[in-house]
Amino acid sequence: MLKPRLAVLASMIFAAAMFRLVPHPPNVNPIAALALFGGASFSDKRLAFLVPLAALFSSDLMLGLYSHMEFVYGSFAAIVCIGFLLKARRNAIAVAAAAVASSVLFFVVTNFGTWVTETLYPHTLAGLMACYVAAIPFFQNTLMGDLFFAALLFGGFAVLERSFPTLREGPAPEAAPA
Fold first, then answer.
1. Sorting pLDDT into bands at 50, 70 and 90, what band is 178?
2. Distance CA 104, CA 16 (A)
3. Which is nearest to 32 in space by CA: 23, 22, 40?
4. DSSP structure class, residue 171
5. DSSP single-letter state for residue 42
6. Alpha-carbon dihedral of residues 95, 97, 101, 103, nearest 10 degrees?
7. In 3-state terms, what secondary structure has residue 80?
8. How large is the angle between the packed helices 31-41 and 4-18, nearest 10 degrees?
9. Looking at 2-11, 41-50, 71-80, 102-111, which range is the least confident one?
10. Measured at the alpha carbon of residue 21, what is the angle toward residues 160 and 71, in degrees to the nearest 5?
11. For the chain, domain boundaries
12. For residue 130, how many other CB atoms are within 10 A of its CB?
């Protein structure tokens, strides 16, 4: 039987991934935030990687696969690792800083992937810089989406944990004496 915490975490992550299927501004999506949330929330590190990446892959299957997915998935796996750093201190400042770091990491990795695998930019340092400069307008939306969805996921789950003690990590709360 699935434990309540695991079921709620997985459900939240898959629901957030499905947001990609509804119309939204470019690069405003919950994927990095759910990778961050998965890393910070799952006690089993395998699930911390598996659930967010499976959610991403599920939505990619519906939207269509694309070239150079390895850079996107690699960046999200690294973002799960940033989430591991949040386990001990999930407060607003730490989550916001981790969301910004996740946005920057995604920007650097995926645009490097574009530069290294495509012919749009020359394979020189100037070409790499041109690739990054051309992507700056998209970064604003990525950052806004990551901050918004990180606040929604972390904040929403914190409210759920306060409301339903069985969702808290660690030993189950003791029942009140009868």
1. very low
2. 21
3. 40
4. S
5. -
6. 70
7. helix
8. 170
9. 2-11
10. 90
11. 9-19+26-166
12. 15
Structure tokens at 9: 């975490």
Residue 80 tokens, joined: 């799960």
Amino acid at 69: M
pLDDT band at 18 (very low <50, low <70, confident <90, very high): confident
Q: Which amino acid is at 72?
A: V
Task: Provide the residue type at 154 as one letter.
Answer: F
Instruction: List pLDDT tens digits, range 154-173.
Output: 999 999 999 999 998 865 44
Q: What does the pLDDT look like over 93-110, one tens digit per residue?
A: 999 999 999 999 999 999
Query: Is residue 42 a contact partner of residue 12, using CB atoms and an 8 Å limit?
Result: no
Cβ burial, residue 162 (10 Å; 0-12/13-18/19+): exposed
Residue 37 half-sphere exposure, CB side, CA atoms within 13 Å? 32
Q: What is the pLDDT of residue 2?
A: 66
